[in-house]
Design brief:
The chain is of the alpha+beta class and 420 residues long. Helix content is 35%, strand content 15%. The protein is globular.
Length: 420
Amino acid sequence: MHKCLPCILAALLLARAASDAAAQRGAYHAPDPAWGLPVPVAPRIDVVASERIDHVAADALEREVESTGGCALVVLRRGELAHAWFDAMPEPIELMSATKSVVALGVGVLLDEGKIRSIDDPVVKYLPDFTGNGRDAITIRHLLTHTSDLDPIPPNEIYQVEDTLAFAIGSKPGPLLGQTFVYNNNACNLLMGVVGAAAGEPGDVFIARRIFVPLGISDWSWYRDPAENPHGMAGLKLHAIDAARIGELVRRGGAWNGKPIVSSAFVEQMLRPGQPMLARCGMLWWRAAEGPTQYRIDPAGVDTLEQSGAITQVDADALRALVGTQGSRQEVREAVAKALGSRADPVLDADQAVGSCMVRATERPAFAFYADGYLGQFIIVLPQEEIVVVRQQTRRDHPTPLNVDRLLELARHLVAHENE
């Protein structure tokens, strides 16, 4: 073993890929002494010899990470560092969209402290300017579950905005609030604004004070726009070992060294399916379940589409005839295409809210939970195996694509279940 020590929706993938592709107008901010936070210190990387991990499997995982362009791999078993590999000196690397998962934990802390009463509170309660044209009905839960139907602005446009919070506040909501899943970077920046408003200090500073400090994380930075708003959609830079601490916090149900950082009740809720359209997504954390997901046409969703004017009565009747149809996403798409003919494209377009509004996914128990960012930034939590895996990557031009399912399967083999 070599150590160097000291398919989600196409629209989702494109959104993550674009989230760091554009020229950025803001900058990464490391802890400022005025914030009263610890001076940044790079974490130690000391691998603990562990007979509770399959090192042959760990080597296979390492080869997979290296061969697909990764630059860092860390494995924790029961909170101990059991395996590590880096292609260069370890450094903080941006988590990209995995940042969203850390923001979700910040919301949980605010709930525990009573600074947010409920995730069903309307956003306008914390951001008074977020009002009018349907905005008043949008809740924190909608932002956490990608169901706000807020205008999903392309990330490359967001990076050109001087004030991303004001931009998100002024964004136009759609007509399908709570009825559709649309991956939404813009909404996550709005959520970070809620975190800051509820905390009474910038969201990145609050999350550092309440989560990073207890976990011993000091060497971090967070992207802020020119108006000093920290992004919620991406932007957090962490060492791989510190990202693993985030995963270990989740594995432990929100506790660290026997003390609660975020309540176990919130962590449990965060990891359950956040909405019925895509059971693979919790509250800004992803879920991996056994076998292929089954989808079905939902009659209530068809009614919603018809009432909103997104489809005609004729098409609605054709879709109602499919109620009871169940299969893979592709099989359901083929059934819709056959029923609607040339009129199916707007309904089937993966980037359109109407497609997910009428489809429901069958919920199944998850064997893993993970934070996922562009280029293959992963924080993977395997509760049964008591494993946390972090993969990081900076290279953008690697010819071998990452296979997420293979990464998860290799991670599961780090522990031989029959020997437990």
